[in-house]
Amino acid sequence: MTGAEIVGLVPKSALVDAGKFYLARQQRSLGITEDEIIRMAVKSMGLEELKPFNPKEKVIEYMMIDEKEQVEKERLIRMTCKGFAIETASESAAPGGGSISAYMGALGAALGTMVANLSAHKRGWDDRWEEFSKVAEEGQQVMNELLALVDEDTAAFNKIMAVFAMPKGTAEEKAARAAAMEEATLYATRVPLRTMQTAMRAFPVLKAMAEKGNPASASDAGVGALAARAAVRGADMNVRINAAGLKNREVAEQLIAEAAVLVKQAEQAENDILTIVNSNINF
What we know:
Helix content is 73%, strand content 0%. By secondary structure, it is an all-alpha fold. It folds into two domains: 1-65, Formiminotransferase, C-terminal subdomain (Alpha-Beta Plaits, 2-Layer Sandwich); 66-280, Up-down Bundle (Four Helix Bundle (Hemerythrin (Met), subunit A)), CATH 1.20.120.680. It is flat, with a radius of gyration of 22 Å.
């Protein structure tokens, strides 16, 4: 009989490190989801050969998660694609353009990651697997951060809506309400700016894959660039519309100026990538 057993609980990092070790030993890309990496560790270490191994019951971090709180925090990204589209189309004002922008950016990064993973497994490119693995890891990180911003943008909108429910009967209540509104509006302006900044990190991944990735996936890198630029431009509109409600005009103008620079950089990055992609599509 073969196999292994973990007695008690184990830190998540131990399984992740083990999974990455075995992936590297097999010259496979490390740029996959954390769940897939842990599954690789479980399989490679024979942790399921003696009895079923459930990470939720054995990993310390998973045992500490408040499942109800986590579900609420990730309400949108836990939906199916269809469910998310239906939720967006409903009468509710959220999710709106900010969340959609973050999601488009996540899809752009995901496409770059996909091309990197496909390239890492391309026949005849065995000696380049590590090069593509590093790109896939960066793409995976960008995707995860943008997915988190999908729900954070909607949470920022809900903070503003909550201010409207605050009392305003006295001068003190009015002052507290005004301060809360300024704080919530500033937060709602900074979140899409972070979406822009994060989406910009998808472009180097996509450009690298347009230049060096599997030629059969050139169009995927191109679509990723389109999605990343849409994320930046969409989030920019949210920066500007929210900044318009800030009383502190100096801060508002600074945020708008930062966003404008990112829009120009995104346009150039998209053009550069599409030029490479179109040169690789021979038709």
